[in-house]
């Protein structure tokens, strides 16, 4: 494919307009046939053209295919082309492209397998009738060749999409299942490695002329520059991963190949896969994990992996759109007597903060469901729980949701008002101690206020939990800060809407090195700021939030790990020429060390308000230093 590098002339693959005169041979031109007003003549012409289309040997082929792709995308439920043999035609073209390498390098034939597979996927996306026609027309084997990597990741993307659509229907699943073990293994490999492959073969290519030209054209339709190409490549890599997971979902739902899908290393990778901001409609790996949790064998495999459980716990205490899926998975594991005590220690420490949740993900009384699950036969089975921490957590939940609730049910209005006044006084005392820098003393006051505050005073409790979290952040008790902010966000209305708690939890997650969770909280914090300031003319995002978002956007970049791996591989080859500066080398080595020693990252400060001192020539002036310190004080003053 050396002849296809970016230095070659960019082809015009756009479909001619309806009013454009395409040729001087109306009887043999597809675009003239498609405009034929007489329906029988038109249908007969299209049918004959599709039948002979694989025999075309000039540039007309890719132009017609591009036009068919446009029609499939804009009218995926139109029965005309599927009834006239388009699937047989696409199968023949893909087969020709994967079989004859000399043909694929002629004219612009390199585009053909991509367009053909995309057309199949577009027509079968929502129509079982078309899916049956496609399978009967023999599209599976050619698509499988693309999935095997016969060409490149670009063709794998559309192949896994099309096969995923075929596997999603009961009437065509049996045909896909003929190759189930191979397809499952290929989909698992794609999901795990596609991001690294896309970076290595496209995004990470320093010499832009070495990028495959047809990749660039397909990504940007010939109208994008470097930034657009990279952005689209990131989007496509995420789609390739998510569509691979969708294909695996089709098998997992039918409880097929679970022993392959539940391989421990893949489960760990799965729990870290995220649709990201470029593909926010996909739940990523947690969607497949949730499906597996509905199966007894799936739960057994998942319960064996502490890494998966930890990632589910982090998701459950985040403001991610898929938070409810993380909670669902943990509840399903706890409901199963075979896995309950394997996950109880980790799950209870997380779910205890969510027992007061009202609604989440369209579900109501989520907190009550969590409570019932954690306290199932608690009094009778207390002996089975050997872990003291778990025992204390369950007793805390029992006291909060059972004993304390009973005590407060018959409390008089006068008593409630008296408690409200006392709580307000304690909060003021805590705030005063905080401003004086007496953090431990403030913490004690907030503790006393929370013990006294009736459960029904949600607004007061939100502030107390959030203020206590700020104290714990300053004392370096990061896990406790996450716990308190999560409790505050759980009782906020709507859920996850208390701005200060979001910012504080974002800081805490940042200190633990959990970039995704920190990023989502920070974005939610900014949204809350906009809502609170919606009446103001000049709305501004707090600068410290912008810095946090920039930091976490970089740390959660889809290709971050692939970039670091490529750098490590490059640094191990000292004789290989590269364009990395000394500063990048230094930063890369430091980042690599931190990633390898995750324990070292825990407890690192959040977004630093102090300027950093670098080498000679980078000395910061005293005036700038003082100004930075003043800014720090201003931000700190907003925190309580």
From TrEMBL:
Residues 27-263 form the ARM repeat N-terminal plant domain. Pfam families: ARM_7. It comes from the Eukaryota. This is Uncharacterized protein LOC107805788. The gene is LOC107805788.
